[in-house]
């Protein structure tokens, strides 16, 4: 049995360091926005023969495309990013490209104007904030019957703090990758954060539910720290096994899946790891710390 509560200072300290590093990364580097948020065109094409990247870029530039960036994926296709163009310009460039370089297959084409990108960004921020708050309220209501010795709303606040921990760390990693690897965030990134939040809170609720069950059986005869430590250890194997299964699937998808989903998968993978850490080593120990501080501030008379 791991004394999670007894070593809470270490576990909470590690969590605090990771969150601080992630926040520094976010505020120092910022995010490299993809076309979903900044506007622009994303075009993926695959030729029947090997084509020099410089030739493709030059053809696009000669026909009105601005800010062209090209990347070659593992399946031999080319991922092109440039400023937004109209459907007429798209057809013109396609025709010229086919005429000069031979036939090709268009795998995807997406063009978003700057105003639409700004609107999507605003909706994404509000969406993530709304989901985190809604989950926190739900957890508070779900544990209304657990009033002693911890008030139900504290479960909701702790769940919200853990969710913040679980989404800000992957976000910090993506900000760092954007600075040094040119990785862009898009709507897939937002979806990944929501997936992480859902998975994380489910794991946390499992632990909290066991605490609720054991507090009801103990009826004040056992110390809160003992009840919480036992609850964490009883649910630890389930949490780790569930996360490990998901991580294996995500790793397979990362290495064998489509290139445009790699960082979406990586975000969820990081969130799965830190979410498992928070549900085991952060959520419950933080409840103990909060309860101890409350007793010092408002001692029982």
UniProtKB/TrEMBL annotation:
The chain crosses the membrane at residues 12-31, 124-144, 156-177, 189-208, 240-257, 263-290. It is found in: Cell membrane. It comes from the Bacteria. Pfam families: Sec_GG, SecD_SecF_C. Part of the Sec protein translocase complex. Interacts with the SecYEG preprotein conducting channel. SecDF uses the proton motive force (PMF) to complete protein translocation after the ATP-dependent function of SecA. GO terms for biological process: intracellular protein transmembrane transport; protein targeting; protein transport by the Sec complex. HAMAP family: SecF_B (MF_01464_B). Signal peptide: none annotated. GO terms for cellular component: plasma membrane. Forms a complex with SecD. Part of the essential Sec protein translocation apparatus which comprises SecA, SecYEG and auxiliary proteins SecDF. Other proteins may also be involved. Residues 95-291 form the Protein export membrane protein SecD/SecF C-terminal domain. This is Protein-export membrane protein SecF. Keywords: Cell membrane, Membrane, Protein transport, Translocation, Transmembrane, Transmembrane helix, Transport. Belongs to the SecD/SecF family. SecF subfamily.
């Amino acid at each position: 049995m791991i004394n999670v509560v007894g070593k809470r200072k270490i576990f909470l300290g590690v969590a605090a360091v990771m969150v601080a590093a992630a926040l520094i990364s976010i505020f120092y580097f910022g995010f490299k926005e993809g076309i979903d948020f900044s506007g622009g065109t994303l075009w993926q094409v695959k030729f029947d023969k090997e084509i020099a990247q410089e030739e493709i870029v030059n053809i696009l530039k000669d026909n009105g495309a601005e800010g062209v960036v090209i990347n070659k994926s593992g399946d031999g296709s080319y991922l092109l990013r440039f400023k937004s163009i109209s459907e007429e310009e798209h057809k013109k460039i396609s025709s010229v490209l086919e005429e000069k370089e031979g036939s090709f297959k268009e795998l995807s084409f997406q063009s978003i104007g700057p105003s639409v990108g700004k609107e999507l960004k605003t909706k994404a921020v509000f969406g993530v904030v709304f989901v985190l708050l809604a989950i926190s309220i739900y957890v508070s209501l779900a544990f209304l019957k657990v009033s002693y010795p911890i008030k139900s709303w504290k479960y909701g606040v702790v769940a919200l703090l853990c969710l913040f921990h679980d989404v800000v760390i992957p976000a910090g990693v993506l900000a760092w990758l954007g600075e040094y690897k040119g990785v862009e965030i898009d709507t897939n990134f937002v979806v990944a954060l929501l997936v992480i939040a859902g998975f994380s809170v489910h794991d946390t609720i499992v632990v909290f539910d066991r605490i609720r069950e054991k507090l009801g059986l103990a009826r004040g005869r056992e110390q809160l720290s003992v009840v919480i430590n036992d609850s964490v250890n009883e649910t630890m194997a389930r949490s780790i096994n569930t996360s490990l299964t998901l991580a294996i699937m995500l790793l397979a998808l990362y290495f064998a899946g489509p290139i445009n989903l790699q960082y979406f998968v990586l975000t969820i993978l990081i969130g799965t790891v830190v979410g498992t850490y928070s549900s085991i080593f952060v959520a419950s120990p933080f409840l103990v710390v909060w309860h101890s501080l409350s007793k010092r501030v408002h001692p029982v008379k």
